[in-house]
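Let's do one together. I've listed all components of the complex below, 920 residues spread over two lines.
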Amino acid sequence: MLIQNTSSSLADTLRHRRQKLASLINFPAILWSGSSNPRNFPANRFPFRASSNFLYFAGLPLQNAVMRLEGGKLELFIDDPQPGSALWHGEMPTREEIAQKMGADGARPMAELELWVENAATIAVQDAATWTQQSQLLNRWVLPQNPPQGIDLELTKAIASLRLVHDEEALIELRKAAAVSVEAHIAGMAATPNARREAEVRAAMEGVIIAHNMTTAYNSIVTVHGEVLHNEQYHHYLQPGDLLLADVGAETGMGWAADITRTWPVSGKFSSTQRDIYNVVLAAHDACIAKIYPGVEYREIHLLAANVIAEGLVDLGILQGNPQDLVEIDAHALFFPHGIGHLLGLDVHDMEDLGDLAGYEEGRKRSDRFGLGYLRLNRPLRPGMLVTIEPGFYQVPAILNDPQLRSKYQNVVNWERLSEFSDVRGIRIEDDVLVTETGSEVLTAALPNHANTIEDLVGC
Amino acid sequence: MLIQNTSSSLADTLRHRRQKLASLINFPAILWSGSSNPRNFPANRFPFRASSNFLYFAGLPLQNAVMRLEGGKLELFIDDPQPGSALWHGEMPTREEIAQKMGADGARPMAELELWVENAATIAVQDAATWTQQSQLLNRWVLPQNPPQGIDLELTKAIASLRLVHDEEALIELRKAAAVSVEAHIAGMAATPNARREAEVRAAMEGVIIAHNMTTAYNSIVTVHGEVLHNEQYHHYLQPGDLLLADVGAETGMGWAADITRTWPVSGKFSSTQRDIYNVVLAAHDACIAKIYPGVEYREIHLLAANVIAEGLVDLGILQGNPQDLVEIDAHALFFPHGIGHLLGLDVHDMEDLGDLAGYEEGRKRSDRFGLGYLRLNRPLRPGMLVTIEPGFYQVPAILNDPQLRSKYQNVVNWERLSEFSDVRGIRIEDDVLVTETGSEVLTAALPNHANTIEDLVGC
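Okay, and this is what the predicted structure of the assembly comes out as:
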């Protein structure tokens, strides 16, 4: 556990967040930080990641800690280090020192928590040791997979409404995560000419993140098989004609994330087919960002991407028909089967542990349309919201070889023309876009995305 | 999940391991592979690490898989990929394909497992989702923190006896892990002159491991505060007079680990006090390795290290008295408070999930002596055992400032002389040593450990 440089402006921000919560609920809330998970034996553990809902109000990644919030007051529950722990872990701050850093109003040993749980709401954390403790102390099932009910639901909605709009301290952290992620991508491009395998490019990228004393916000995707959307393998050898798709983002020590994807040619030169499709994806990316301003429905941004991609694929002769009609029958989703993006904050899919409570405006549900069902965000945009914009083009065998889809879209796809683009398996371009009062700001804008500039950065 | 290049010699080895187990127990054994843990939301998970006891017999890091072993026969239980998973994860091998790679005698969906559990022994895995499933299916508590009983204990002892002695396939993997770890340490030394913070050296080291498509076997220690034995912070700036202690090891895709520590001067030059203590630790290291041969008690190796360190500290005027007498009163443990090493294999502390069942010969228990209690291994050495040898010298404030210890050892420590060594906070030198028929082989011998050579590798 690292406690250092907690700025007074952070302490003020944390107090402000707690006061805002107090204005939204009239019952106590108890938030657990969680504990680390053992890897292959109890003393060899995965790195600790505090629950985001705890971090948002606590600011410190404390293990095995609990905070009770009521009326803007914070009571911290945490045990002092065990006697003897100083031998292995060094001198740790005491409960009182931690409480002071957080601006807590009180600090108590964990054993006292049971006296403070009455009528309190909570949110389930992810690790089983902790949600078991939550369930026992609150005397009801608190399970991460169960939708919250009653006051837990009220608390969840209140926290989601706060975390949807980022304050200045959050943005400071989010910008740091973005800057390091930009540097990681530039390092990945530069490392490609001398890399034999995907793993070597991944090493160059994650090396930058580790060197900044940050962690990856999610398991990196660094692959010549971008058509496998959640590819977490890194063993393929790089071939000169391959495109390398890298979806890599950093997370700051306080837990704030970035999420960037770039796709570049291993050889340093896009083929003409690769460049054509790349430019379609980039056109969608640019069109979407240009349309981001307060009040716009994120769903419309998604449909705009679908339209630009459909239009581009019609221009290339891959799709046949009127682009808008094609989008209406979800033909774009043959090649762009996921949503245009998602919320970004403390989590890379921000607040996805709350189900669709954060991503979907109250009363809205997921569409059952092939081209809309994977949309993770369906709300009107508001200043302070941070979203990803990540259009893509993929030739996913599971889609393109699906007999039902193939027959449904038989006449709108020019399959012969498509076969000329076989060196384009997967392209995605993803940036992190902050909604501002007057439009948007791309937090990851320092990372080039034009084909020519990308080629220069790979620079063979 | 990655399934490739399962060599036929591996399949033979796996079959051989299963047959050996069959010769030791006369009841069925069911081993679970485990599942990954969610990080901050369900879709964002920590990397999967299969249970080592499963890996030993299965060879493949399968998620959510179970194997039933009886009379040398293997029945695999695993579900085929969900429909639709190919979109996100690509085409996955089918149950039958996986079973074939493993040389399984049968393969069934997970739902059938409940028909096969009668009278079966098991070993608890680390993740709660899986040990809950183990407990439910076997209708008894199977908890990682509970010592095994009855046939579970018999199974545990049988597996420990097999895993204690490494076969050729295991050694192939262990040598790979060692080679990559050696490369990582050399990269760390080379990166030090241009590094500002510990994190940058860590990045250089872990970058090598990631580039080889391996993972770290444990959370790296890369610190200028080596006196904090389990230091997992990387934020300190490097100062010219600092020693940097790096305890970093790789783990192969099949789960086999290496574990290496080196300590080097940030400036590229040891001070004379640093060099003096370094040479005491190195003398202990070399003396221990020279004494490793079949039949020797590992406890004697530990006591040898204690003696060499005590002798060296007497020579330097830090301790006063007869070295053997000093060891008998545990005076060495003021500066060398941990054990000389541990078993190494699929786990960095091999089989520590089994408590002391693997580390301690039947009938032996941990000592309550200050200088022996942390010894993780207390057995006579046998050919095929792999152990670490890792003597160290630390000035741990929690020990040296402890009033009781300080008064007990008042007259054997020359505190004034000790104060001249204040630039030596922590030194450890650790290698991985295989017991052979005729002595030992240092698997990590390619990494230099002499002070002058270390200085050359840092090379300022």
